[in-house]
Prior knowledge:
By secondary structure, this protein is mainly alpha-helical. The chain has a single domain (about 1-210), classed as 3-Layer(aba) Sandwich (Rossmann fold), CATH 3.40.50.1000. About 50% of the residues lie in helices and about 5% in strands. It has helices spanning about 10-15, 20-25, 30-45, 55-70, 75-85, 90-100, 115-125, 140, 150-160, 175-185, 195-205, and strands at about 110, 135, 170, 185-190. Helix 3 runs antiparallel to helix 4 (about 55-70) and helix 4 packs across helix 7. It starts with 9 loop residues before the first helix and ends with a helix.
Amino acid sequence: MGGVLAYDVWEHLLLDTQTGIAAIYNLDRERVRRAGKDLWKKYSLYCTGGRRGGKKIEREYWHRFNKELMISVPIEDYREITDRFIKPIKGMRNILLELKNRGLKLAICSDNTEFWFEKQKIKLGLDKILSSANFVLSSRVGVSKSSRSFAMLRVAINSLGINKESCLFIDDKARNIERALEYGIPSILFPSNSHRGASYLRAILTRMGII
């Protein structure tokens, strides 16, 4: 999701040198980085099973962030800033639509928090392209894509109802590509957060005869 369909959120949101939260509130960048990493580890693996609303978990996240940094920024201010960092990567939604129209099964396999995914899903209009059963998040299964147990990859494959050898995994992290290949899924490494990413992927999929 992040880096492929939409620009990564947490690090840019917190640490962008001009419009990130550290810059806006004149916070120590290293303290913000540490807090961000610690909270990412917790909330991207905060196993909800999809039963808890993203907004409630988002409030918890920012409450903990304020506590870690010993500040008292209103949660609504954080939400407003976050919305500016939820940006689809140009051209990627069109590729999803083309793949769907060709009858291909699609799934999102994302190391993500419940609340940031919810915002990305709305901006990309993913509900109109994929079934909710095909949204496979680390925050719902409790493990990441890079897990040595392959648990998250297995859930994604099962959501599609196909053999892993028939699937194509696309990710912007080399460690995730390596794990998918180790599990036996053909994979493509995507240029992370690239505005040319859609053109790159389209060229590959065209050469493969997929679109």
